[in-house]
């Protein structure tokens, strides 16, 4: 059975990393953008990370420029923006293709596991996927879903 642990991704600093490094954690995977109406969600994502990281929770941010070019051109610009404006210190990854035929295999897997409302494609920035400690996709949340609305689901998975 495939899980998120089977995928390798590129960190925002350009290093290859296996998601198996997060084995045993509850993970929230989010496709992000720095210049989107939902960008303030970084604050809520960071708050969740700060509150639950010691219990085995992490947020993984995957910037994407596929929705009206709402992301900076360079990864170092993205990293700086997120740190300076929202204090982001959860793991961020290199700009990633999250939809279409050239989507990163991780995102093809995620959308195959949990279809969104009316479509399997990711429709916009800040789509969220909640992963259990076994690396299996539990829930998918719409871009408009504020991070604080995920807290009960996160706590349930952390308690397992």
TrEMBL record:
Residue ranges of domain Thioredoxin in the record: 1-159
Catalytic residues in the record: 36
PROSITE patterns assigned to the protein according to its UniProt record, in alphabetical order: GLUTATHIONE_PEROXID_1, GLUTATHIONE_PEROXID_3, THIOREDOXIN_2
Keyword Oxidoreductase: yes
Keyword annotations of the record: Oxidoreductase, Peroxidase
Domain of life: Bacteria
GO BP, sorted A to Z: cellular response to oxidative stress
Gene Ontology molecular function terms on file: peroxidase activity
Listed InterPro entries: Glutathione_peroxidase (IPR000889), GPX_AS (IPR029759), Thioredoxin-like_sf (IPR036249), Thioredoxin_domain (IPR013766)
Family as reported in the entry's similarity comment: Belongs to the glutathione peroxidase family.
The name this protein goes by in its record: Glutathione peroxidase
Species in which this protein is naturally found: Bacillus solimangrovi
């Amino acid at each position: 059975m495939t899980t998120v642990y089977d995928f390798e991704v590129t960190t925002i600093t350009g290093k290859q990393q296996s998601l198996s490094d997060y084995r045993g954690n509850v993970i929230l995977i989010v496709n992000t953008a720095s210049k989107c109406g939902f960008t303030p969600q970084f604050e809520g994502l960071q708050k969740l990370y700060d509150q639950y990281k010691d219990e085995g929770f992490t947020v993984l941010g995957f910037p994407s420029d596929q929705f009206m070019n709402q992301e900076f051109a360079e990864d170092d610009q993205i990293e700086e923006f997120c740190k300076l404006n929202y204090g982001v210190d959860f793991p961020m990854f290199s700009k990633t293709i999250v939809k279409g035929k050239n989507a990163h295999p991780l995102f093809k897997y995620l959308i195959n596991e949990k279809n969104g409302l009316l479509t399997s494609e990711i429709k916009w920035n800040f789509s969220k996927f909640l992963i259990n400690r076994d690396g299996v996709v539990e829930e998918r949340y719409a871009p408009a879903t504020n991070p604080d609305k995920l807290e009960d689901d996160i706590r349930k998975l952390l308690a397992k």
